[in-house]
Amino acid sequence: MTTLFYARPRPGVVREVERYTHLFEIPPEDTPVPDRLIPLCGVFEFGHGQLELLAILEGVPCFACLQKSPDSVPQIEGGQ
Ligand SMILES: [Zn+2]
């Protein structure tokens, strides 16, 4: 099963309007941690220190990431 986590760029990494909350796949335990983390949408690429991990989905979600997320990912409550 794929495990996902939410993260968004830290302030200053990208422009404030681009600080979407992306979905990332946690690599399987037997693979080395990649140097660069690429969200499901594949549009961005982040180093480890550039991301702010989120326990819950907050901020502005990246729509492309949500579209690619499996059904197991909780949907936004009362989303518009
Ligand atoms: Zn994304």
Question: What tags apply to this protein structure?
Answer:
four-stranded mixed sheet; binds zinc ion; 8% helix; two-stranded antiparallel ribbon; globular; 1 helix
Short description:
The protein has 80 residues and is mainly beta. Helices cover 8% and strands 30% of the residues.
Would you write up a description of this structure?
- The protein is mostly beta strands.
- The protein has a domain at 1-8 and 28-71.
- The chain is built from one helix and six strands; from the N terminus they run E-E-E-E-E-E-H.
- The protein has a four-stranded mixed sheet. Strands 3-4 form a two-stranded antiparallel ribbon.
- The longest helix has 6 residues, at 63-68.
- The N and C termini lie far apart (29 Å).
- The chain binds zinc ion (ZN).
- Zinc ion is lined by residues 20, 22, 39, 41, 43, 62, 64-65.
Q: Order of strands across the widest beta sheet?
A: 5-1-2-6
Give the SSE string: EEEEEEH
Which shape, going by the Cα principal axes? globular
**Cα-atom radius of gyration:** 12 Å
Beginning-to-end CA distance, first to last residue:
29 Å
The number of helical elements comes to: 1
Helix content: under 10%
Number of distinct beta strands: 6
Give me the secondary-structure category: mainly beta
**What summary fits the major beta sheet?**
4 strands, mixed
The low-confidence parts are: none
Average pLDDT works out at 85
Percentage of β-strand residues: 25-35%
* Ligands, ions, cofactors: zinc ion
